[in-house]
Amino acid sequence: MVKSIAVIFGIVFIVIGILGFVPAIAPDGMLLNIFHVNAAHNVVHLATGIVALLCAMSGAGAARTFFQIFGIVYAIVAVLGFYNGDEPLLGFISSSRPNTWLHVVIAVVSLFLGFGTAKQTA
User: For residue 7, what are the domain limits?
Assistant: First the structure.
């Protein structure tokens, strides 16, 4: 199951990364008129999606490790988002309150998938 979810995460993040570069869908850097994005943010989404797909193809253990690391990283990003408010994260990755709350949800789901699901044995 965790491999399939990693594939879904990967595809969604790649699509979101691409859509962030489409002016009609992200006018004035506002993806769906809700989430602040910029080129750096879009590249992070693309890279995350690619890594998720690679981990899913490598097996359940790699997918679980992806979600563990990804969950921790996104939890840190969420904390930084609450701290920085609408200011760019690390000085160059766009952020906003809606982004931060989405990162909280992504972190919780990822941490559950990485640490809370039973390991499947063959």
Answer: 2-116
